[in-house]
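re: the backbone from monday

yeah here it is again, tokenized this time
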């Protein structure tokens, strides 16, 4: 059994941020459960582009408002509490926030916690975990 709080991972290597967002990686590949689970906060009035070429991501919005743009089709989707989106086609996407947004995210395959977004917003292909 694994029990963790976001308070205990704050300020550790599981707490990753850039200028627009902060991701608290609660469950990672090394935990051996086949997925990773994150709490992500995106700053108000920001624009972030992502492209998970090697991962499927499910996102559940629990706080804040904004817009999700599918950069491949141009479709826009309003985001707010209770909205879920699933990037099951590895879509390049943009999140534009109106207010600060907090989201709960699941990645498959799980991230290790050491990934860094490249210039396209993607993570590298996963490596096997020892």
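seq for it, each position gets an aa:
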């Amino acid at each position: 059994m694994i029990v963790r709080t976001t308070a205990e991972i704050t300020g550790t290597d599981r707490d990753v941020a850039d200028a627009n967002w902060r991701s608290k990686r609660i469950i990672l590949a090394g935990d051996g459960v086949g997925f990773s689970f994150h709490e992500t906060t995106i700053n108000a009035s920001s624009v972030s582009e992502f492209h998970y070429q090697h991962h499927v991501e499910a996102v559940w919005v629990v706080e804040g408002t904004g817009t999700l743009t599918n950069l491949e089709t141009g479709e826009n989707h309003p985001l707010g509490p209770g909205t879920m989106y699933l990037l099951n086609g590895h879509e390049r996407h943009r999140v534009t926030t109106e207010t600060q947004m907090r989201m709960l995210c699941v990645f498959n395959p799980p991230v290790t916690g050491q990934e860094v977004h490249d210039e396209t917003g993607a993570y590298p292909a996963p490596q096997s975990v020892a």
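The chain has a mean pLDDT of 91. The domain at 6-105 is CATH 2.60.120.10 (Jelly Rolls).
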